[in-house]
Structures are given as structure tokens and as C-alpha cells.
Specification:
β8 and β9 form a beta hairpin. The chain has a domain of 200 residues: FAD/NAD(P)-binding domain (3-Layer(bba) Sandwich). The radius of gyration is 23 Å and the shape is globular. It contains 17 helices and 20 strands. It has 536 residues and is α/β, with parallel strands linked by helices.
Length: 536
């Protein structure tokens, strides 16, 4: 133990932890970030997985990164460059049909009209409804939620939020209610008739949700993915040159330029206490790092299961946190390719816009539904939903000339396999990885033979390597019972945890997951406020 006492020690150097560090250091607080791995970035890192091939390891695409965070942290000045995909998404449907969704209303209508002219006509109204809902909530995501049981000041916040909602037209109130409570399937069926068009929009409703599109609440997950923009353009998806690690490396540089200290290979063992207050951490090597406050960037379920001392909170409070519903149902692969995939419905290995888009294997709502039901029954989908990105079409730093890397983001797998099976068994991972490759190959017959190397991350790998409990990319599911004031647990939705001096700054806090930086930004604001008012 050294004599130095930091103002804030941050547990975990993922993108939200780094964001928190940069804002706190900008406010003049002394900050140390403690990351167990050899590189900062958490799940948003880039690494070589085969000779000559690099890729984003877990997080894989850019859209939700908040523009205020980009501007405040001067990420462009610290080396971040984001380029736009040439098209949004491509859905291979069968041997002759595919839905290639470009940008702009006219291009999207033309694509949808191939499946339903009526749906193409309905698209402007659908876009307008989603944008109204997103606009209403966009303001709320950067605000601290009212905290249940927090006294009269919190009641005032509740009243203010309620008044904003009541000022909305009745139709918009109905829209929000439907999005928060309905299933993606029910919501989309009201808008579109084509099964393929419904599936195209419904995919966003199951991403990271471990749920069927018929599950109530998945309409909000769909909306959650509508908040994003790239380079000031809403609805556009992008790629960070150098992979997702370029984002977190720029954040680390921003934090260090403001005076924050970042330590890697600094695994935290438990929370250090001074009476009832958090007073730093103890590292796995026995070193004590003292601090006036601790901000946790790890999932709240893991925080209270493994780091908060047993006598620091009542049993019922601990159980609330350790009982958070988690599990994304996701499986990650990176593959090195000798050539681009040659899709039966859109032939050719010469680079084209669809190769640079998000390529989604999930052609119908029934397909999305069966993928979930298979996983619940058997542990994984026989026909999984696969989103494939080929970032080397936009970034030639990732692969040798003429070759490529692809990210495969796969739904659904059970976080814990049935019948005594385990993801710790390499055979389970390899077997399902073969299923994923075969699934893509059914639409692009050359794909399997083009795979040179592959990196496989099961839910267990995501948990062990990045601390994502049950492989949950959102640090806790985005159900109605775990949103806004109830995220992570009702009564602790304002980033302050039940241990005095302990804060939550990661995706387990409002507004939830994705590489946004918003939980980190919001948490930093509350920590700074408490220091100013001498509450720390």
C-alpha cells in the first residue's frame, strides 16, 4: 500500500470506465483506472488472431457511440477515425432473392418494394414513428433517472419526467407504451406484411436479448438500436479504422492527457472498506489502492457477487443485485478469409456494397423465432441468426492484400448448456462454430473453403475474458424491469450503489449496453456533483 490516496479508483478499463476517467480527470479529480487484462478497452479491443489478420475481438461495429462523448473527449484528435458502411444491411433470403438496404428513404423503399409495395409505402410513416420515439428518449438517456426512495428531490424529478411525457400527443404516448411493452413481432406486424421485411427490422429486437421476437419487451430492444449515428448522420453504421480498439485507445489517450493514470495487469480482488464506506480496492497481488470513491465498470451482478464484502450490504440487497437477469444468448467468431463470400442471390467475389454492409442470416420472423426456441431446448440454434461484417472491405490495415477478416455475431446460444454439457468443453465450441460456418455457406457456397483461421468466443469465454456475466454484452438484459430507474435495481438507478462511495459507471447502469460511453459520462457527472457537495 502506498501513501497516495486517489479521488476515484475505477474498476475495469472498458470504454465506459475510460470515459468516466476522462470526465473526472477533466474536473480536476485524481483518477486511477485498474484493468485486469494487458490492454485497456474491455470488450472493445482489436487484436491479431492469426498471422497477418487483426480484428475487433468482441464489440464489432460503430453507431451508438454518443456524439457528445466523441466531442467532449476529443476522440478525433486522439486518433479516432470512423468511416461509413457503403450500405446498412444485406439479408440473403434464398437462392434468388436478397434484401440490400441502402441509406436514404428512396433507396430503402426500392429495396423493400421487391418484397411488398405496400410495405415500401408504409416505410415513411414507420420511420417517422421510430424517430419520434427515439427523439423522446434520446434526451432521457443522458439524464440521471429519478431514484426510487430518494426523497423529495427525486419526486420532483419523477414529476418533471412525467410532465414531459404528458405533454406529448396521445398517439406518441401510445407509441411509447407499445414500444416498452410489446414484442417486436407484434409491433412490426402492425406495420408490415412481408415476413422478410418484418425480419429485417425484427433482427434489432433480438440482438443481445436472448429472446424470441414474440417475447414482450423486444420492441424496446429494437428501439434501443435506433439511437445511433455516424459522423452526424442518424441511422448510419460505421467502422473505426483499426477496429473497435481504436475507440478505446483514443479514450485512454484522452483520459491520460487529462491526468488519469491507467494501470493494466492490475486485477482487482475485492473492494477495500473504511467502516461502511468504499475506500479503494485490493488487487489480486495483495496491493491496496486507496481512494475516496470507487466507480465500477464491471457488471453489477459480478460486482456484488465477487467484489463487495459480504457484510457491506444486507442480504436482501445483495440478492437483488446478484439476481439481475442476464444472458445475451450470443456467440462471437472472427475468421480470416482467402476471398470474399460469393452469395447465391447476389453473385461475385469482387468487392461490392453488400460486402461492406451488415450481412444478416435471418430471412424470416419464423427463422428468428426457431433460433431462440432451439437454443432454449438444445443449448444452441440448429439454424442460428448470424450477423457478419467484413471490416477489411473498409480498412486494409486488418488483413493481407486480397484477403479479408469477418466478424460473426451469432444468436442464439444458451449461456449455460443443458444435460450436463458445458462451454468449457472445447468440442462444444468447435461443433457450434461448424454450425455457424455451415449456416453462412448455405447462402455463400465458397465461404467454408475460404476460411483460413477462426477465433471462437462462447458465452463462457466472454465471461472469463471480459467479465460479461453469462456472456451478457449489456451487463444485464434490457427488459422493462431493468430499465431507467430500475437499472440495475430499483432504488439504485442514479449510479450510486448501496455502499457509500461506490458508483456504477458501466453498461449495467442507465441507459444500458452498446458502445455508447453514456453510462460512463452520466456516472462521472454524478460523482463530480458529490465531490463538489462534499458527499464523498
Amino acid at each position: 500500500m502506498t501513501d497516495e490516496i486517489y479521488d476515484v479508483a475505477i474498476l475495469g478499463g472498458g470504454h465506459n470506465g475510460l470515459t468516466t476517467a476522462a470526465y473526472l480527470a477533466s474536473a480536476g479529480l485524481s483518477v486511477v483506472v485498474l484493468e485486469k487484462n494487458s490492454v485497456t478497452g474491455g470488450a472493445a479491443i482489436t487484436e491479431a488472431f492469426a498471422p497477418g489478420f487483426r480484428n475487433s475481438v468482441a464489440s464489432y461495429t460503430v453507431s451508438l457511440l454518443n456524439p457528445k462523448v466523441i466531442t467532449d473527449l476529443e476522440l478525433a484528435r486522439h486518433g479516432l477515425k470512423i468511416v461509413e458502411r457503403p450500405a446498412a444491411n444485406f439479408w440473403p433470403v434464398d437462392e434468388t432473392r436478397g434484401l440490400l438496404m441502402g441509406y436514404g428513404l428512396a433507396a430503402r423503399q426500392r429495396a423493400i418494394a421487391q418484397f411488398s409495395k405496400r410495405d415500401a409505402e408504409r416505410l415513411p410513416a414507420y420511420d417517422a414513428a421510430l424517430e419520434r420515439a427515439a427523439a423522446m428518449l434520446r434526451d432521457l438517456i443522458t439524464r440521471t433517472p429519478p431514484n426510487a426512495g430518494g426523497g423529495w428531490l427525486e419526486l420532483i424529478k419523477v414529476g418533471a419526467a412525467g410532465r414531459r411525457l404528458l405533454k406529448m400527443p396521445l398517439e406518441d404516448q401510445r407509441l411509447l407504451l407499445e414500444l416498452f411493452t410489446a414484442s417486436a413481432a407484434d409491433f412490426l406486424e402492425r406495420w408490415f406484411e412481408s415476413d422478410t421485411v418484418q425480419a429485417a427490422f425484427g433482427f434489432d429486437g433480438i440482438v443481445g436479448a436472448y429472446a424470441a421476437p414474440s417475447t414482450p419487451g423486444t420492441a424496446y430492444v429494437l428501439l434501443h438500436h435506433c439511437f445511433g449515428e455516424v459522423n452526424g448522420k442518424p441511422g448510419v453504421w460505421g467502422h473505426a479504422i483499426g477496429g473497435m480498439g481504436a475507440i478505446t485507445q483514443a479514450m485512454a489517450k484522452a483520459a491520460e492527457a487529462r491526468g488519469a493514470i491507467i494501470r493494466t495487469n492490475a486485477e482487482v480482488a475485492w473492494l477495500r472498506m473504511n467502516g461502511a464506506r468504499a475506500a479503494g480496492v485490493v488487487l489480486a497481488n495483495g496491493e491496496e489502492v486507496r481512494a475516496r470513491a470507487v466507480a465500477s465498470n464491471i457488471p453489477p451482478k459480478l460486482l456484488f457477487r465477487a467484489y463487495v464484502p459480504e457484510n457491506a450490504v444486507p442480504d436482501d440487497v445483495r440478492q437483488r443485485f446478484t439476481g439481475i437477469k442476464s444472458g445475451s444468448g450470443t456467440f462471437r467468431m472472427n475468421v480470416a478469409l482467402s476471398e470474399l463470400p460469393d452469395f447465391t442471390c447476389l453473385p461475385g467475389t469482387v468487392q461490392a456494397p453488400h460486402h461492406g454492409s451488415g450481412i444478416v442470416i435471418g430471412p424470416t420472423m419464423g427463422y428468428l423465432e426457431r433460433a431462440y426456441l432451439d437454443a432454449r431446448r438444445d443449448g444452441w440454434s440448429k439454424e442460428p441468426v448470424v450477423e457478419m461484417l467484413i471490416p477489411s472491405t473498409l480498412d486494409d490495415s486488418l488483413a493481407p492484400k486480397g484477403q479479408h477478416v469477418a466478424s460473426l455475431f451469432v444468436q442464439h446460444v444458451a449461456p449455460h448448456l443443458p444435460d450436463g454439457r458445458s462451454w468449457a468443453n472445447p468440442l462444444e465450441k468447435e461443433t457450434f462454430a461448424d454450425v455457424v460456418i455451415d449456416t453462412v455457406t448455405r447462402h455463400a457456397p465458397n465461404f467454408k473453403s475460404a476460411v483460413l483461421h477462426r477465433q471462437i468466443l462462447s458465452p463462457l469465454d466472454l465471461e472469463q475474458r471480459f467479465g460479461l456475466v453469462d456472456g451478457d454484452i449489456f451487463h444485464g438484459q434490457l427488459g422493462l424491469g431493468q430499465l431507467f430507474s430500475a437499472r440495475p435495481v430499483l432504488g439504485y438507478g442514479n449510479y450510486r450503489m448501496p455502499v457509500p462511495g461506490l458508483y456504477l459507471c458501466g453498461s449495467g447502469a442507465h441507459p444500458g449496453g452498446g458502445v455508447t460511453g453514456v453510462p460512463g459520462m452520466n456516472a462521472a457527472r454524478e460523482i463530480i456533483r458529490d465531490f463538489k457537495h462534499r458527499k464523498v
